[in-house]
Amino acid sequence: MTGGERNPAAILAAEAEATTAASGGPAEQAGPRGRGPRAGNTTAYLQYVAGKLGGALVSMFAVLVTSFFLFRLIPGDPVKQMTGGRRVSSEQLAAMRTEFGLDQPVWKQFTDYCGNVLTGDFGTSYQFHTPVMDKITEALGPTLWLTGTAYVLYTLIGIWLGTRTAWRNGRLGDRFHTGLALTLYSVPSFWLGLLLIITFSVGVGPLPGMFPTGGMESGDESGIGYVVDVAHHMVLPVVTLVAVGYAQTLLVMRSSLLDEMGSDYLTTARAKGLRDDLVRRRHAVPNALLPTVTLMFVNLGTVVAGAILVETVFSWPGLGGLFYQALSVPDLPLVQGLFFVFATAVILMNTVADVIYPLLDPRVGR
Amino acid sequence: MTTETASSLPAPQEPEKTGAPREAKSPRALAWTRRRHSAARFWREYRTHRAGLVGLVALVLIALAAVFAPLLVGADAQSVTQAPGEAMQSPSGEFPLGTDQFGRDLLALLVWGARISLTVGLLAAFLSVAIGTVVGITAGHFRGWYATVIMRVTDWFLVMPTLVLAIALASVMDRSVWTVILAIGVTTWPTTARLVRAQTLAVESRPYIERAQALGGGHGHIMARHVLPNVMPLVLAQTTLVISSAILTEATLAFLGLGDPTVVSWGGLLQDAREAGAVSAGDWWYLAPPGIAIAVVALAFTLCGRAVESVLNPRLGVSR
Amino acid sequence: MDTKDQHGRTRSSSAARAATAALSPKRRRPRLLLAAAAAAAFTLTAGLATPLNPAPQQAEAKDDGKKTLTVAVAQSVDSLSPFLAQRLLSTSIHRLTYEYLTNYDAKDNHAIPAFAEKWEPSADKLTWTYTIRSNSTWSDGKKATAEDAAWTFNKIMSKEGTASANSNFVTNFKKVTAPSPTKLVIELKKPQSTMAALDVPIVPKHVWEKVDDISKFNNDKDFPVVGNGPFILDDFKVDQYVKLKANKDFWRGSPKFDELVFKTYKDQDAAVAALKKGEVSFVAGQPALTPAQANGLKGESDIKVNEGPGRRFFALATNPGARTLDGKKFGDGHPALLDKRVRQALFLSVDRKTIVDKVFQGNAVEGAGYIPPRFSEYTWKPSPDQELGYDPKRAAKLLDEAGYEKKGGKRVGKDGKPLDFRILCHATDPNDKAVGKYLKEWWGDLGIGLKVNCLDDVSVPWYAGEYDLAFDGWSVNPDPDFVLGIHTCAALPEKAKESAATDNFICDKKFDELYDKQLAEYDPAKRAALVKQMQSWLYDSGYMNVMAYPNAVEAYRTDQIKSITTMPSAAGNIFGQDGYWSWWSAVPASGKSSSDGGSSTGVIIGIAVAAVVLAGGGVLIALRRRSTAEDRE
């Protein structure tokens, strides 16, 4: 979860899950999420996977229905938006309505829409006169670069710091890192972004503006220069995303490791005379990683929609900015398409997490 | 990410075992004594969490400032026609945080802004937790097709990108404080619903529920009298945490221009600052305080929530 | 693209390796290191390799002395097709890349020859004949002729979904033909005095007739795009930049800069910061720089802040009771506003000076007549006894007379209901919101309640007539026909709530008569007099309270731009002019251009990239190392 989509409640829930999952708690039986087949039965597993995939399909259809009908509630006359308030003859208006299928009854529009979506056609944007799919693929790249990089970084930092703080539970370092993470987690990402711009782009006092104020490239570089240029533009937005994002991984990793550390087998391992370091690396961390991995997948789904604010603040040419732009027109086909993509990403990643969980969990025999 | 904490929470208290009926008291009085005792125990535990205490103190101070804003900074601090200063003055003795583009005292606006930000945060969180609790308890109590359907709906809400959905809702409706509350409340309840449902399942598996049913307790009775009191601690912890995210979301929506522009809120102040061009002018004194205020309140609620959680669920290992 | 990828990968992995080598303590086992290095490498690759940007950059040397003028813009391009584009940025680009029949003089906005050398009406005023110049060539070498112009107009009049833009110019056209390469004939249904102000880009027929579906063709695939304006459209990346190169063969003479780049900065502060740093040469502001930004820039060396009279008026529109063409009433406008005294009382209680001083902080001119003073030919001011200045006492008296007495701080009508209005405001316009705050207090003092209703898209309640007052504003063209036409009865919607040309449902016989007269009046002076009469009527009606004419506030770097033509040339604006004068005339300052900024910061960039590597991989390794060191003790 990145950007504005942070929910401390979710952290705790995840932390809680960390403990139950890691200790093989009874959540496995009670959880409606279904932790998957326990026995190492391939058929059972395949059935389980099929069930999850079926569920994902149902969810995606529900998302399609929502995106189609929810945004119809936004007041606005599409044809009006297309002509931008110019005087247009009524014949020409009628022609435009026919072209966009707006003269059809709503149910017909919906079935047409569903049929088209199956073929990957999300309609034509009102304001850009381009297929929605093209706009989305155009903006998907920059978004994935930005949030993907941030994602990798904050996951790694979160795991490292989580491990470290858990191991040194209660000491100054732990308190400092946990406190810092929680504080950064409470900071509005857009505000942090603005402050970073003031400090590092505009420059404060003797500090010159070192980084670009926004955008993804200067537009006058090629080859290696281009690559460096994009990286240069990415620094501040990535720092923002990482700063507000790593707390979640840290806390989950920390609490699952803490839980793991109380386990008997670790005491046994220590008693065998293994070095602390080894005990941690060989035994505790791999087990504690499980819930974190689950969290990682779920977060991966939100990566797509996660950076609306940061993209807005840093003028990043990605999906978030596009969504906001589309919503304020409102450009219905584009809004619907983006909403579908955002939600589908989450559904898919949740499904992947569900599907691979039984494979990863060492306690589930194969 | 949500799954059940239920199993790791302390076993729901069974009425027979708690309380200390030394003298004959009415059941109601007994229940109250019991609750008073557990509240006291809760407070003793809570006090040992230093971070939780810090958070609580911060909240109390901010809440007091918000409640007494008219006395502290004057009732006409929001007036543009009676603004005391010039536009965009930097901090001085007269205006410790400077002035905004209308010449209003930013410190006063910050204090006033606490009212809206806290109100929206609290109401949205209550709405969200209320929906979540009702859904969770009923889904846990009724099982069967009702539970299947409603949990399906919950799951489905869970995969919706919250912020995207909230933005969509806020742009569908009028610009007002209520819209923001509704948008946040309606999009954030599924986490609570899942937690509460799991806890409900755990409570309902206790023998005394069966006994109550045998004695003729209806659905309503069981849910309200037996399940609800037992999920309340969890709901309380959850509320504190949801408030924190609700305040952040409120700021976000206001910043995106989806709040009510006629009221002063922290997110709204940030948007005003941005619209006025404070960023490139380097007017950090306009931009920094509202953000810090949001962060402090969100952090304070998170700290409280974590403390409450760890009192209720010591296994979490959230140490001070 | 391949090579770029290659570069990216090679570089990133070696950088990661270097980082690893530098930081790796000898006794570490390689597994974690590898993981960290791989992570760092992945991160970097993610940042560096860019298969997402397949458009190959021109591999030309950068220091060939090419003079580039970079303009920061806030808008993104909606379409590069002249048949679809509506946004100011897009139409400005078309002004630069295609010729229009006429242009406007930089000095005083009068129509001057462009693609047409001269134009004249027939005696019956219904046929206009344009003589097309013979020295204009398309950038692919073909001659530009009247045939191209006729084809363009006919396309706009067709039903092929080409009505998005410019359709308002052709609604009165009967027939457009090109009897010879230098002669264009337009036949009208009714006389129309605006025929020297047809702001329609003429496109090359030989290129555009090959387009399959014009309603979906955005003209952004084949660069350079064939055109005949002072610049040629050379490259475009959505939401990032539009590049134009100078048309050396332009008939009026080549522009002085070799390249003109419009670079998108969604955030105006980012654009201002970019100007300060020299990343861009010019910032337009959307629609103007804020006072704080302008003040911040005034202190900088090598930056000039240009304030010119704006083209927009900023007004308060009153709902006079929405109705259809055939007189059917709809909507729910407040009945009290049907009383002229109430409207005038609202007028009288708005302090325009405060609005200019406080909201615009001096960057605007106090409002009076409907057409901004920039258009000196048509602008009008009320006489002193006609003027409705700030006078709350007189406003209160008018309200008393109209039957709205003040009871307990609230004005109450004869029906016992308090006087409460709603005002529609654009959520995206800070000025609307700011003025709304003042109105609420001013009218509150009078005893009138006000609910400020801000929306992203106000068009729905607006067209449904479901508002009492609304913030209104139009960008006025050198020819005032359009902004006058939107207040005529003919502009009313055919059906209730349907979108129509009307601005706020004004329909008055006297105004319409004057409108028809000015449209048929081909004598400029007489026409101007009629236009002024119309403004006088509008002022007295109390329907349109023009509060201010916001100035255009923009800034440019004097070390990159030596001189630039404003419009009007005495003291005017630069961005969004009615002609192409600013960019066509801009003279580069010696030595520097905005693209230099990129290479001079190369060192810093390198450091920054290294910092990312360190952050991504090195820090982790270091942390790891430290922690084990402690544990070993």
TrEMBL record, chain A:
Limits of the ABC transmembrane type-1 domain: 140-357
Topology term for the membrane: Multi-pass membrane protein
Entry annotated with the keyword Transport: yes
BP terms from Gene Ontology: transmembrane transport
Residues that span the membrane, as ranges: 53-74, 143-161, 182-204, 224-247, 288-314, 334-360
Compositional bias annotation for Low complexity: 17-32
Compartments, record wording: Cell membrane
Pfam families xrefs: BPD_transp_1, BPD_transp_1_N
Region (Disordered) location: 17-38
GO cellular component terms, A-Z: plasma membrane
Domain of life: Bacteria
Keywords: Cell membrane, Membrane, Transmembrane, Transmembrane helix, Transport
Predominant localisation class: membrane
Matches recorded under InterPro entries: BPD_transp_1_N, MetI-like, MetI-like_sf
Homology family: Belongs to the binding-protein-dependent transport system permease family.
Name of this chain's protein: ABC transporter permease
